[in-house]
């Protein structure tokens, strides 16, 4: 069972990096193998939606983080083994009896796989790993592979000297033809182990917390000290929601930190559904069926859609998910910003009230339309939070710390004046007039 989401949400949360910077994936990716990197990418693309599986994965990584175990293999072994196995596929595709590898490359590949098989056996038989209850399912799967009679000569092979030509030929037949499927399954287990150990290292070094997944449909979200993991000097916040206040209406002036706060919360929810540690002091959450954010919604020029129409279609998509009875987390940053103030006001109030009736889901709506708060306050399960602006004379100061209530902070004109924009324009106007007078 996977968390339903979409490209817009993945883009909003910057899950994967672009040319202008790294993404969340890069922050967690300290894997030693290409195979593990592919597994990790799959995990980030498909977060889980099963309470038991989320907590099980989280417990595994937490246990490894506590044990401070390093990845017990050399990365070069995988390079040789993978090249060797991929070459067999190329040979099969070409339909030729001639190997696309040299004798040395075959020998290196065989030797690398022998070493990996022997080392994984040593790893799973270590006392601390045997005592690890959370990883017992994976450990037993690997152990059952190694008990197969086909692996007996591999485990018995002494690698003090060079593997003989006859032995290489025999092992080559075993690895690439007879037991290829088992070798691939064993490597898949090692790739997953690589992911767990690398994410455990991230949790340990960055002091991330392991969230607790709760029953689906209860609409519980409790965050203590949440912050965005990519910020150098983040300001953390406490934040909670439940069925009695399943909608949060967030206000605050521009630059007060609304978008950063929204990304902090939604990133924590997304990563928690992967079963990974998050940037917070504490976290527990009800597992959701889906998650949809709207922070940077582009105009759909391909179909000639305006920003407002793109917003309407986004709301419609969410409504369809809710109508299907799904429990989802929804975030709209500046709902209906693409239309006039009157329509935005009416639309924001109507949609927010409708969301409030879906108590098995969680909604955060940010808005500059503070007047909407009067009508929304009639609904008991809508909570109000804001990010304040303090004025030091004519200079706005931002605390980035969440407070309860609605703010009417409006400092746009102060910032415009502080930047001297009006003076620049006035001076330009006078200069232009002077030039015109000088030409007559």
From TrEMBL:
Q: Which SMART domains match?
A: MUTSac
- InterPro entries, per database record: DNA_mismatch_repair_MutS_C, DNA_mismatch_repair_MutS_core, DNA_mismatch_repair_MutS_sf, MutS, P-loop_NTPase
Under which name does UniProt file this protein? MutS-like protein
| Superkingdom per UniProt | Bacteria
Q: Which GO BP terms sit in this record?
A: mismatch repair
Keywords for this entry? ATP-binding, DNA-binding, Nucleotide-binding
One matching Pfam family is MutS_V
Q: Which GO terms describe its molecular function?
A: ATP binding; ATP-dependent DNA damage sensor activity; mismatched DNA binding
Signal peptide positions (record): none
Species of origin reads Pseudobacter ginsenosidimutans
Q: Where is the DNA mismatch repair proteins mutS family domain?
A: 245-433
What does the organism's lineage look like at the top? Answer: Bacteria, Pseudomonadati, Bacteroidota, Chitinophagia, Chitinophagales
């Amino acid at each position: 069972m996977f968390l339903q989401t979409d490209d817009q949400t993945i883009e909003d949360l910057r899950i994967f990096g672009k040319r202008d910077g790294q993404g969340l994936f890069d922050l967690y990716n300290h894997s030693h193998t290409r195979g593990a990197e592919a597994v990790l990418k799959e995990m980030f693309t498909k977060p889980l939606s099963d309470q038991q599986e989320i907590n099980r994965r989280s417990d595994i990584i937490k246990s490894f983080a506590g044990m401070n175990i390093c990845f017990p293999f050399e990365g070069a072994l995988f390079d040789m083994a993978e090249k060797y196995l991929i070459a067999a596929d190329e040979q099969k595709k070409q339909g030729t009896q001639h190997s696309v590898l040299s004798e040395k490359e075959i020998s290196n590949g065989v030797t690398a796989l022998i070493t990996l098989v022997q080392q994984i056996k040593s790893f799973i038989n270590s006392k601390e790993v045997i005592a690890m209850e959370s990883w017992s399912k994976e450990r037993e799967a690997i152990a059952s592979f190694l008990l197969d009679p086909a692996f007996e000569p591999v485990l018995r092979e002494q690698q003090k000297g060079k593997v003989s030509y006859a032995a290489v030929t025999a092992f080559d037949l075993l690895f690439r033809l007879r037991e290829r499927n088992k070798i691939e399954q064993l490597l898949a287990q090692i790739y997953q182990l690589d992911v767990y150990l690398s994410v455990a290292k991230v949790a340990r070094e960055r002091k991330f917390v392991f969230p607790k997944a709760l029953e689906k449909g209860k609409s519980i979200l409790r965050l203590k000290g949440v912050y965005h993991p990519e910020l150098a000097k983040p300001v953390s916040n406490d934040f909670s929601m439940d069925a009695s206040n399943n909608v949060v209406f967030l206000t605050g002036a521009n630059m007060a930190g609304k978008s950063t706060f929204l990304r902090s919360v939604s990133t924590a929810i997304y990563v928690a559904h992967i079963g990974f540690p998050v940037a917070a002091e504490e976290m527990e959450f009800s597992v959701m069926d889906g998650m949809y954010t709207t922070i940077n919604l582009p105009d759909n020029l391909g179909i000639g859609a305006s920003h407002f129409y793109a917003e309407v279609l986004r709301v419609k998509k969410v409504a369809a998910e809710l109508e299907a009875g799904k429990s989802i987390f929804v975030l709209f940053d500046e709902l209906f910003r693409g239309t006039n103030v009157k329509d935005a006001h009416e639309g924001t109030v109507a949609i927010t009230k409708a969301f409030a009736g879906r108590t098995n889901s969680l909604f955060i709506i940010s808005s500059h339309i503070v007047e909407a708060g009067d009508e929304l306050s009639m609904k008991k399960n809508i909570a109000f939070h804001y990010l304040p602006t303090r004025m030091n004379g004519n200079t706005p100061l931002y605390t980035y710390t969440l407070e309860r209530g609605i703010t009417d902070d409006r400092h746009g004109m102060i910032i415009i004046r502080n930047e001297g924009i009006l003076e620049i324009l006035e001076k330009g106007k006078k200069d232009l007039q002077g030039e015109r007078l000088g030409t007559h």
